[in-house]
Design brief:
heterodimer; A: mainly alpha; B: mainly alpha; elongated
Chain lengths: 315, 299
């Protein structure tokens, strides 16, 4: 319980830290803060400038500005986009489901593909299998997912005259078309990711398979399958879950590029377009949301960890 | 002094990497006997030589428009030409220079800032440790690429800024890698002994701590080089990194998307270059980990 409280508190502190970082980053931008925050450049006279300064509270000292900014953010007010005039909060909320869908489908396909393969590879202790899995795992780390995406598009357009869709179809209006749209983006993310997870699964399975209780299970005459699935897999899940959790950062980063390449208007797409258009309220909001998601997933992984292994009693 | 790996509550500390005399040779011999590390080292070696010898070995000027655009590989242009009629091979070789330059300098930034922070935090412990490592954790609460995008969006896209951004992004990783073993080493008897004979903190850190944490740092440096090169390629691919006409693999791949149906090679070759180089560093890093950390052996 104490661990839980400390862990939750630390999550809040990290997010506060990130918010300070994001707040300061925008203020470090070259150029006049009025132009940056109002999206105007050389269009305002001195009187208008002063008005904007007052309106945005920019005449106050930095700490006051920060507290105000944080307070309105906590109330769900992330400011307005310069380019579209939309409230950033609503904008992000409408983009979030696409990113969640992409990420979940990726994790799902990785789990279905990589974990069974990793278990299969752990049955054999041959050096060849070990080296093969090692090299495949390293390839997964080395081949950039944006290249896989480009190649998939290339192959798809040569073979099927397929091109990235121009309009995103959400799964509620037409699940079939939506899945077709998601197939290549998910594939481009899942391939590299799976290669890494196969290797991790195998190595954690091997470690568990070497333990005493597995030997006991074997000695009492359990079949190889029962030993593998009932005794080894559950215990190996702890490192596998941790690794899946640790890769969230890679996944979220990959999502940004993948959405851009396939024209999926999710959070990553929103972030990049915010950056290209120097739409800082959008950039601030999206980065904050990415940080929130990342920190929450890490928290969830930690909690799952304690659940999977009751021996881990954090003081 | 401790030649075998020491074990403590902080995990195993591999023995020191001995650079001088027979130690460096022993490491080299180890690499030669580990096929994975050897392949990695040879690959990196080739890329480095190509990058250094670029002016001599590249057949054409990488930014000169000298032929018809989008030619397939042929005798005049071994790897074809890009959308502006520039020689693809020369651009790939020049791209190796950019990748290695950004990667190496970014990792040096992360290594020197992060490594120092980690050693200081682990050495002094207490509130120094708490404050610095919490600060580092905050940087880690953003996905690496998102943080890099945020930083370059503020600094503006350029080669130097990408290098800085990647350096900042990987600083906390080095701080963590340096801190753990430092915490463990500081409690070992030989540090106590050094303190007892009146060695100053600086001497203890430089002569006893740093050599003994060099193994995990060396592995981390190798692995970070691979991720730094990938991140540079990703940022350039997104238009936030290296700016045209400077040849960068990420940038070349990004431009290729529009022309790959005419000449697929422009989409295939830069990706191969990235993958091979990054794989080289990953293979070497993996092999070094096997060599230097006995606990990882056989995994």
């Amino acid at each position: 319980m104490r661990y839980l409280a400390r862990r939750a508190l630390w999550t809040v502190v990290s997010l506060l830290g990130v918010s300070i970082l994001i707040f300061l980053l925008v203020r470090l931008l070259p150029g006049d803060i009025v132009d940056i925050l109002a999206g105007t450049e050389g269009q305002l006279g001195p009187a208008q400038r002063a008005q904007v300064l007052r309106q945005f509270g920019l005449d106050k000292p930095l700490p006051v500005q920060y507290v105000r900014w944080l307070w309105s953010m906590l109330q769900g007010d992330l400011g307005w986009s310069f380019r579209s005039g939309q409230p950033v909060g609503g904008l992000l909320l409408s983009r979030l489901p696409i990113t969640i869908e992409l990420a979940l489908l990726t994790v799902l396909s990785v789990s279905l593909l990589a974990i069974p393969l990793g278990i299969l590879a752990s049955v054999s202790k041959s050096v060849r299998i070990k080296t093969l899995v090692q090299i495949v795992g390293l390839l997964g780390l080395s081949v950039p997912n944006f290249w896989i995406a480009v190649l998939l598009i290339l192959v798809a357009s040569f073979l099927f005259r397929w091109g990235p869709a121009l309009i995103y179809v959400n799964p509620w209006s037409d699940p079939w078309v939506n899945l077709q749209q998601m197939f290549l983006p998910v594939g481009s993310l899942a391939l590299g990711f799976s290669a890494v997870i196969v290797r991790m699964t195998r190595s954690s399975m091997l470690e568990v398979l070497g333990r005493e209780f597995v030997k006991v299970a074997r000695a009492k005459g359990l079949s190889a399958g029962a030993v593998l699935l009932r005794h080894a897999l559950f215990n190996a899940m702890i490192p596998i879950v941790t690794v899946l959790g640790l890769q969230t950062g890679f996944l979220l980063g990959g999502v940004v590029i993948t959405e851009q390449i396939f024209g999926l208007p999710g959070l990553g797409w929103t972030l990049l377009n915010g950056v290209y258009q120097r739409d800082y309220p959008v950039v601030q909001g999206t980065v904050m949301l990415f940080a929130g998601t990342f920190v929450m997933i890490n928290l969830a992984v930690d909690l799952l960890y304690t659940y999977l292994d009751p021996r881990i009693r954090y003081e | 002094m401790s030649d075998e790996a020491a074990h403590s509550e902080f995990g195993s500390i591999p023995g020191p990497v001995r650079w001088g005399g027979s130690g460096g040779l022993r490491l080299l011999r180890g690499v030669r006997r580990t096929p994975v590390a050897l392949i990695g080292a040879v690959t990196i070696g080739c890329v480095v030589v190509l990058a250094l010898a670029a002016p001599v070995v590249s057949p054409y000027d990488p930014v000169a428009q000298i032929a018809k655009p989008l030619l397939s590989p042929g005798p005049d242009h071994l790897m074809g030409t890009d959308e502006f009629g520039r020689d693809e091979l020369s651009r790939l070789i020049a791209g190796a220079r950019v990748s290695l330059y950004v990667g190496v300098l970014a990792v040096l930034i992360a290594l020197s800032v992060g490594g120092t922070t980690g050693v200081v935090a682990g050495f002094y412990g207490g509130w120094v440790d708490d404050v610095t490592m919490r600060g580092m954790d905050i940087l880690l609460s953003l996905p690496a690429l998102v943080l890099a995008i945020a930083i370059t969006s503020v600094l503006g896209p350029s080669l130097t800024n990408v290098m800085l951004a990647i350096g900042i992004v990987y600083t906390p990783t080095f701080a963590r890698v340096a801190r753990g073993p430092t915490l463990a080493v500081v409690r070992l008897p030989y540090v106590e002994a050094a303190r007892a004979v009146g060695a100053s903190n600086l001497v203890i850190v430089l002569r006893h701590v740093v050599p003994n944490i060099s193994a995990p740092i060396l592995v981390q440096t190798t692995v970070s080089l691979s991720t730094a090169i990938l991140t540079e390629a990703a940022l350039s691919f997104l238009g936030l990194g290296t700016q045209p006409p400077t040849p960068s693999w990420g940038l070349m791949l990004s431009a290729a998307r529009q022309y790959m149906l005419i000449n697929p090679w422009v989409a295939v070759l830069p990706g191969c270059a990235i993958a091979v180089t990054v794989l080289g560093f990953n293979l070497l890093g993996d092999g070094l980990r096997d060599l230097l950390d006995p606990q990882m052996r056989g995994r």
